[in-house]
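call fold(seq) -> tokens
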Amino acid sequence: MEENSFLNISLSAISIPSILTETDKLEFSNSVTGLYEVKQFLDKVEAVKSTTSLPQHLANSFQNTKTSFIDIYNTLTKDYSNIDSVTAVNQIKNAYNRANEYKRSFFEISSSNYTLLTCNTIISLNGANSNGLQEKSFALIEELEKEIQKATKLNKELEDKAAKSVVSNYANIFLTQETIHKKNASNWLKTAILFTILTLLFLTFSFKYDWFNTTQLVTITDGNKVDSRFIYNIPNLITKVFIISILIYIITFLFKQFAINKNLQTLNNYKKNALNSFTLFTESIGDKDSSSKNALMLQVAKAIYENTATGYLSSKVQESPSSGILEITKLVGDSK
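ret:
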């Protein structure tokens, strides 16, 4: 490949290190080939820059791009013979991976990266001696930058609205669950009270009318001697104990179901309130106060995924290991 010399760099001088495997040699060669494509643009921009007075922000942007290219070139041509082969191979791989990433980012246009667009604009000024043409070109670049900023701002607003919509939808889900468990708790409580009353009536009448007589008077006559005594009716006694145990178990079960549903109702109420308050708190926190937002996000995650003592169930029943979601939330907050 023929190369211009505006950057005073010859990519053909880069030799493939012999310590690499065949696969790595191919990757290395492809990375160098990719840099040829970038260098073609940089050479043209350098040519224009040498004959045209550029605005300071364009000159600075190109200088940063040029510096990064030279740094990658120096890394690819570095002498690795003075270090062990394993370390050398790793460093060489890192070097050509950086080259691949540099090429990708160079040709990628986004709201925060328009290097290629800037280079093309500078190249288009080649041979243009008219100040009016340059001014129009620079004005178009500035206008494009403003439009990109507007698009970025609009995208953020849409993301915020989408987040608020998701929060609202989840709050409605917890509201629905709260309503369901509230109704269930009320039904279980009514059933438990009714069954308890019926049980007390049953026990009262069973004792009053001796439905399950557990003792029996027995008279034994031995000649002229008459001996009367009470003995236990074992079958009736077992039946009575069994029936009372079943009734107590059913009453306990009914009140336990009431407590479970009341506990779930209260938990869903906590979660609903946490999500409804989330939007209010986020709006009161500044955009740059990331630490407060991370703390708020963690507290909301705890309210949703961590069991909270409601008083309806014992603490032992409600004990559970820390949710993995909480750990992820902490990691996300720490990484920001």
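Residues 55 and 80 are 40 Å apart (CA to CA).
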